[in-house]
Amino acid sequence: MSNSIKNGSDVRVVLAGFAPAVRSWQYSHAGTPTWRFYWNPEPGAWLVSHEERIELEPETAVLIPPRTPFATGAEGAFPHFYVHFTFGATCVPERRRVIRLRSADVLLPGIRRDLPRFSPEKIRFAAAAAVNAALLELPGEFFTMKEESHEESFFEQAVDIFEEDLSRTFSCEELARRCGTSVNTLQRQFLASSGLPVKKWLLNRKMECAVRLLLTEGRSIKETASLLGFADRYHFSKSFKLFFGMSPARFVKSGGAAVPGDPD
Most buried of 46, 116, 210, 238, CB within 10 angstroms? Predict the structure, then answer.
């Protein structure tokens, strides 16, 4: 395989925003299929990946490759600039780890200074500029490709199937059948790649999406329940409360008050 970056110009911003006060950021397993770029203009939040704790301080920006396992935490409310993006159809880094960058190297002074006052359109421009600058900071060997066996791809196949339609409720048996493998093999791949069994990973991902829909997009509880494939608002609210320790109504009213991570 070539050591060069493939499809380097194919960067697509999926979601970008600036939250002036994130009050809930307690995820024990937060790996997702898209790349992430994070920068916080004030301290107080952190990531943990591969047993390394990374403080999200104003001097530091981070890039997180797809399906890199990480956990999050915060002492209280904090401002947060986030970008979810994809980067080429075949560009998958061999080393899946959180990359720390100097924010001064990837964020223009105007972005660092005026970001809280940007319109949604300007946020998108800032996101594209930051992502491209961040990718330019990475050494070429970071993107060394490796041949993946058929078995090694089962986890990613299953995640892609799930992400195509978050309203679907998949069983492990159905995902294994669609990936052309056994339940045991798929469970082993999920545990190796994310540290979670299939069922818990799927619930974790739905709850992460629920927070985004409720707080970032301002969706109603009923809409969120429907978009995530719950039978009704009651079923969603019950699952949400079991996961976060509070009802979605209280969660929204509190602005996303800090809550414990997912239960064991």
Answer: 210
Structure tokens at 231: 């039978």
The number of distinct structural domains making up the chain is 2
- Is 161 within the bounds of a domain? yes
If one compares 188 and 3, the residue with the highest pLDDT of the two is 188
Judge if 132 and 170 occupy the same domain. Answer: no
pLDDT of residue 159: 82
- Which domain covers residue 201, as residue numbers? 151-245
State whether 113 and 159 are in the same domain: no
pLDDT value of residue 142? 65
Question: How much of the chain, in percent, has pLDDT values that exceed 70?
Answer: 81
**Residue 135 and residue 20 in one domain:** yes
Q: What's the predicted TM-score (pTM) here? A: 0.65
Residue 35 shares a structural domain with residue 94: yes
Which tens digit of pLDDT belongs to each residue from 6-20?
334 578 887 788 988
